[in-house]
Design a protein that fits this description.
With about 160 residues, the chain is of the alpha+beta class. It has two helices and eight strands. A hairpin with a 4-residue loop joins strand 6 (about 105-110) and strand 7 (about 115-120). The protein starts with 11 loop residues before the first helix and ends in a 7-residue tail after the last strand.
Length: about 160
C-alpha cells in the first residue's frame, strides 16, 4: 500500500472554487437588489488579479496595480451590476470616477470585516498545473483566532 493518494478524476478543486465564488456573487446580488445599500456595518474588501482575462479597469489603475488590487465597497460606490460571470461597479480613485468590471474568476479574496468573514482562493489561470508540494495558504489576519476565514489552496502533487 502506498502513502500517496491517487489523482482524482473529479475536479474537486474547481467545484469548490466555483461554489466559493458563488458566495461572493450571491452577496453582491443581495446588495444590488437592495439598491446598492449595504445592510448594517457590512462592507467588503475584494481583491482580484488585474491582468486576469475579462478584467476591465482604467489604464491608470492597471499601471498602478499591474498584478493585483483590492477595492472596498462601503460608502461611496455606484452602479453595482452583478451578472452570472462578473460584476461591475463605479468607484472613485483620487477623486476620479472609474468603472471596474471584474469576473468572479479573477477574485482572490473577499472579506467582510464587519462580521469577521473572509474567503481566499486562486484566481483562474494563476495556479500552476502541478506543484511538487502543497504550498501553505497565505497567512490571514485573525485566522488562528477562530474567525470565519476559509483559505483554499489546491496544488496537486505530480
Amino acid at each position: 500500500m502506498t502513502d500517496t493518494a491517487p489523482d482524482s478524476l473529479i475536479p474537486y478543486d474547481e467545484i469548490v472554487q466555483e461554489a466559493l465564488r458563488g458566495v461572493v456573487s450571491r452577496v453582491l446580488l443581495q446588495v444590488e437588489s437592495a439598491g446598492g445599500v449595504l445592510p448594517g456595518d457590512h462592507h467588503f474588501y475584494i481583491t482580484f488579479k488585474t491582468g486576469a482575462p475579462g478584467v476591465d479597469i482604467p489604464t491608470h489603475l492597471k499601471e498602478r496595480f499591474p498584478d493585483e488590487m483590492t477595492i472596498v465597497l462601503q460608502n461611496k460606490f455606484w452602479d453595482l451590476v452583478v451578472e452570472a460571470e462578473r460584476f461591475s461597479v463605479g468607484l472613485s480613485f483620487n477623486q476620479l470616477p472609474a468603472k471596474l468590471v471584474v469576473p468572479f474568476s479573477a477574485i482572490t479574496a473577499f472579506v467582510d470585516p464587519a462580521v469577521d468573514f473572509g474567503l481566499q482562493f486562486q484566481a483562474h489561470g494563476t495556479e500552476p498545473e502541478y506543484a511538487d508540494e502543497v504550498e501553505e495558504a497565505p497567512e490571514n489576519p485573525g485566522a488562528d483566532d477562530g474567525s470565519n476565514v476559509v483559505s483554499i489552496d489546491f496544488s496537486r502533487k505530480k
